[in-house]
Design a protein that fits this description.
Number of helices: 17
Strand content: 5-15%
Number of strands: 18
Strand order of the largest sheet: 9-8-7-3-2-1-11-10
Length: 560
């Protein structure tokens, strides 16, 4: 049975998203098709077979729109075009068609909270007078204090510093504009009907070109409290959930009406188009508000990503997630890494010193990293994630067991967090280093035409052991594990959306069934865990399972 046929049998063609495995593709770092050291659409097209052979159902492409790239493309200068460095609109259309021919759906990123300061909308706002319609598309305000020299309120940028920048009007100091991220990313004003209508038109523009859905950046932003009141001195933290009720600019109730309108747009297409939310909120109960039947289809489960490598904590996170999404009939999703967090090999290979350690600042020093332990735990975590009900996300390089590159030279760092933090927070570049495809030295086949142009971020020499080429024919490799797991996931009727039941297990062990005949056992303890009576191992994540026991830091899929 083929992948598409198996997926349709499990969930039906119109609900493919309920248990899809989606591959997140950071376009600048996936594959370079023209030899300039920057990933592009030509590179994606040339490597689509890798994604097909891996066994994923869809690909999510980080922003490919025209952009000055001050924040890796999340500063969009035109929502209806393709960045020339990445390719052309014709190439983008060909990519969508070729992906569909391989049974892969295509999800784009959309960035509705803010645009680039180079977008024509913002340039028109700068040229217009205070109080104009052009400025109403953003948040412009007069300053406080003598001569308006102080920001309009105390809000902080999540990249560091004030969330306000002053402009000049008629050659004199003028109003201030809001940017919850970098100063080059002014926040759009979603109270303005023009902004609402424009984004609905943008959705249709790409849906009409065959795109299957959108991942919504900062989905919990958009709506700000009337009057933009002071926050009260709380610092904003990158990728941290909201920890207070009635926050003036995160997770406002007004966002839900926006997404109801977006859902109506998606549902107007005969072949259902979908949305996934990036929403950092304080609890699963707040998250599922985005997933009510007339709103968004799915959302990233950051609670799972942030949970430490501990059986009790993971079981609690899984239970809570399953229970809350069930209230609104939505599927859960699971994710271990993405372009904003430390790769999970590096998180799981050392103790976290603050929470789950999704940023470098939260982690023990690099000297504490046991990379082999991290890779072993990452193998087990992958089998756990793929065995859980619902959908899952694979960040590019997860299938190779890549780790965070923590020793990038200061002069190559490009994440705006590095500059805005006064060079104290190294930011997210370490998880965005270009993929190694082949060869024994950089650029490891990243440039497909054989060019040896330096990639936009340097690759470490020890990537040589984890290239696609090095792992291709190794049955013990991470790549082989991912391929085998995803093949079984598509073939086995119990996996994907559906039943889930915990099984009896010892301390430090997670065991559960997925309907008749299939079980997963994850041993997080420091001693072997016995297999259930009569179980046959379908796939294991670690060393050979002998004497009827699963070794520590190992997961196994079982026929029971």
């Amino acid at each position: 049975m083929g992948r598409a046929e198996a997926a349709t049998r499990r969930t039906g063609e119109t609900t493919w998203w309920r248990d899809a495995v989606v591959y997140q593709l950071y376009i600048r770092s996936f594959a370079d098709g023209n030899g300039d050291g920057i990933g592009d659409i030509a590179g994606i097209r040339a490597r689509l077979r890798h994604l097909h052979d891996l066994g994923v159902d869809a690909v999510w492409i980080n922003p490919w729109y025209p952009s000055p790239m001050t924040d890796g493309g999340y500063d969009v200068a035109d929502y209806r075009a393709v960045e020339p460095v990445f390719g052309t609109a014709e190439e983008a259309g060909a990519l969508v068609d070729e992906a569909h021919a391989l049974g892969l759906r295509v999800i784009l990123d959309i960035v509705p909270n803010h645009s680039s300061d180079q977008h024509v909308w913002f340039q028109q706002a700068l040229a217009a007078a205070p109080g104009s319609q052009e400025r109403a598309r953003y948040h412009f305000r007069p300053g406080r204090g003598p001569n308006g020299d102080e920001p309009p309120n105390d809000w902080r940028s999540v990249f560091g510093g004030s969330a306000w920048t002053r402009v000049t009007d008629g050659g004199e100091p003028g109003e201030w504009y809001l940017h919850l991220f970098d100063a080059t990313q002014p926040d759009l004003n979603w109270a303005d009907p023009w902004v609402q209508a424009e984004f609905e038109s943008i959705l249709r523009f790409w849906f009409d070109r065959g795109v299957d859905g959108f991942r919504i950046d900062v989905a919990h932003g958009l709506v700000k409290s009337d009057g933009l009141p002071d926050l009260g001195g709380d610092d904003e933290t990158m990728l941290a959930p909201v920890e207070r009720t009635d926050h003036p600019h995160w997770d406002r109730d007004g966002v839900h009406e926006i997404y109801r309108a977006w859902r109506r747009v998606a549902d107007s297409y005969p072949d259902q188009r979908v949305f996934v939310a990036e929403a950092w909120v304080d609890s699963p109960e707040r998250l599922v508000r985005y997933l009510r039947p007339d709103e968004l289809h799915t959302a990233f489960n950051f609670d799972f990503l942030r949970t430490p490598w501990d059986a009790e904590a993971l079981r609690k996170a899984i239970d809570h997630s399953l229970a809350t999404v069930a209230e609104v009939g939505a599927p859960p999703t699971w994710v271990l890494s993405n372009h904003d967090v430390v790769r999970h090999v590096s998180r799981l290979g050392r103790p976290a010193t603050n929470g789950a350690g999704h940023s470098l600042a939260d982690l023990a020093p690099a000297a504490a990293l046991d990379r082999e332990l991290g890779r072993r735990r990452a193998r087990a975590a992958a089998l756990l994630m793929f065995a859980l009900p619902g959908g899952a996300y694979v960040y590019q390089g997860d299938e190779l067991g890549l780790w965070e590159v923590e020793d990038l030279p200061d002069e190559v760092l490009q994440d705006p967090t590095w500059k805005r933090s006064g060079h104290t927070d190294r930011g997210r570049d370490g998880c965005r280093v270009p993929l190694p495809w082949s060869g024994t030295a950089p650029p490891f086949g990243f440039s497909l035409d054989g060019a040896r142009s330096a990639p936009w971020l340097p690759q470490p020499a020890d990537f040589a052991s984890v290239t696609v080429e090095a792992q291709e024919d190794d049955p013990a490799s991470m790549l082989s594990l991912y391929r085998a797991a995803l093949a079984l996931r598509h073939e086995h009727p119990a996996l994907g959306d559906g039943e889930f039941t915990w099984l009896p297990s010892g301390p430090g062990v997670l065991a559960f069934s997925r309907g008749s005949g299939f079980a997963c056992l994850v041993n997080l303890s420091d001693r072997p865990a016995p297999l259930p009576a009569g179980a046959t191992v379908l796939l294991g994540s670690g060393p050979g399972i002998t004497d009827g026991a699963v070794p520590p830091e190992t997961a196994a899929w079982l026929a029971v």
